[in-house]
Amino acid sequence: MMRGAGMTPDPTSERCTWCGAEVDPYDGFRARQEPGARTAVLCRLEHVVPWAMQGARWEAAEAEETPVAPETPDICARCGQPLTDARVTLTRHRGEHRIPDSFCSVDHMARWANAGGRYAR
User: Fold this and answer.
1) At residue 98, what are phi and psi to the nearest 5 degrees?
2) Which of 38, 44, 51, 95 is most buried by its number of CB atoms within 10 A?
3) pLDDT tens across 30-54, in order?
4) Domain spans of the chain, in order of start
5) Cβ distance 20 to 47 under 8 Å?
6) In Å, what is the CA distance from 114 to each residue of 6, 19, 29, 31?
7) Among 63, 6, 5, which Cα is nearest to 37's?
């Protein structure tokens, strides 16, 4: 996010892995694949689909990043199957709140996002 009169980039923001837009730490989505500690930042839920279709380009997780939170769901949000330690987590950053959803694969995460995500009917 650009801040102030000089419009300098916010040093705490990240870049969307799909489109390159700045993503404030209190906004957007963070995907994480375990094991392997790979991450992606997505500014909008809609960017999950093309990002996954183009091969899901991941970044290596930084050493100080925390592992998957204990409150992360243990079932796939798409198919309802129990998850093992191998999982993909998509966490919505909304202000100070973190809203995680877990998946058994990137494909299931993309299908879930394409259907409208958590609040789809």
Assistant:
1) -125, 120
2) 51
3) 999 988 789 999 999 999 999 999 9
4) 15-116
5) no
6) 38, 17, 15, 15
7) 63
